[in-house]
Each structure stands twice: as structure tokens, then as C-alpha cells.
Amino acid sequence: VVGQPRSTQRKERAKNTPDDPDADLRKWLRDWAKANARKGFRRAWAELRAAGWVVNKKKVQRLWREEGLRVKVRKIRKRAGASTTPITEADAPKVVWAIDFQFDSTTDGRKFKIASMVDEHTRQSVLNMVERSIPAEDLVAALEKSFALWGGPPQGVAVRQRARVHLRVAEDVLRGSGRYRLRSARSAVEERVHRILQQ
């Protein structure tokens, strides 16, 4: 009658009509998402089923997206680096020592830990501890003994990121006097530990 092709006609979306069949379900999802900001549509669908609703999970997912609901992602607070001083190049002995920890097990399945520290310039080992367990007190005592044996501490101690957890208790020994600092280590200590494991 109006001369328009049939393909241009569109049916009004159900959610835009007063008699939207999913209006109650949409309201329930909005209220639930507001009360459970850290949970997604799968948990919402499970609680819907537990509450007696008979609804498909894919439909819940579709309505969840149409309502613009999202799970809030916890923001990770950025922390300042352990040291703001410039990195010292290991251009001479006893300038930077690198420390790292490795874990392995013997043929009987018992685990052991290796704490190794090397001079980054000479690649000489200044500390080697291979024990089933290395308590913090033993690590602190070994570090103090190593510093005394080599005529005092180096200018800097390099620590790999994942090894910092093991040095939290020993932090007073490493940085207590202000002469020690923690930074990313190079591969010198990894090479040393690899040779130990091969032997």
C-alpha cells in the first residue's frame, strides 16, 4: 500500500515494548548484579534456577549483555620499585652480587632448596646453601658469614623478582645499613645454579 519493500520492515524489539515478556527477569538480573558486583551471569543463572525460575543459561547470558551488566575487575595497585637508585653496572669485583633460589627433588621424591649468590663480574660463587629447608635465620646467618668472609658486603645485591619473597626476613641484613639494594638480577646466578643441578 505504501510502496515499501517488505525487507525494510522491522518488528519492534520485545524489550522496547510495554509488554516485554522478560521485563521481570531483566529487573531481577539488574538487582542481583548490583548486590553481587563480583559475580557473573553463570552464578546469576544458578541462583535463578535455585529460586525456581525455568530459564536457559544462554538466555540469561543474552539478557545480561543487553542490560550492559559486567563483573567489576579488581584494580591491582601499582607499587613503587624497591629501589629508586640508578642500577650499578658490575664493572669490577664486589660491586654487584646476584642471589637466587632454586627448588628440586632427589630420586626419593624429597624436595631440597638451593640458595646461591655469585659475583656478577667474576662469576665467582660467594654463597652456596643446599638444604632440605632453609629457614630465614639460617639464611641471615649465611649472608652475614659470606659478607664477613669476603671483607664486607658488595655495593649492591641483585635479586630476581620471584626470589624477593624468600628474602623478606633477610631484608634487614641486605638493606639495613643503606648500602644494600634489591634490583633485577641477570642470568649469572641462573647459570651457576644450573651447573649445580647438572652436577
How far the N terminus sits from the C terminus, by CA atoms, comes to 91 Å
Count the E strands: 4
Helicity range: 25-40%
Biggest sheet overview: 4 strands, mixed
| Shape descriptor | elongated
Overall structural class, as computed from helix and strand content, comes to: alpha+beta
Work out the strand percent: 15-25%
Estimate the mean pLDDT confidence.
77
Strand/helix succession: HHHEEEHEHH
Strand order of the largest sheet: 3-2-1-4
Report on the structure:
The protein is of the alpha+beta class. It has six helices and four strands, in the order αααβββαβαα. It has helices at about 25-35, 40-50, 55-65, 135-150, 170-175, 190-199, and strands at about 95-105, 110-120, 125-130, 155-160. A four-stranded mixed beta sheet has the order 3-2-1-4, with helices on both faces. The protein is elongated, with a radius of gyration of 31 Å. Residues about 175-185 have low confidence and may be disordered.
Short description:
The protein has helices at residues 23-35, 41-50, 57-66, 136-149, 171-175, 188-198; strands at 96-105, 111-119, 125-131, 156-159.
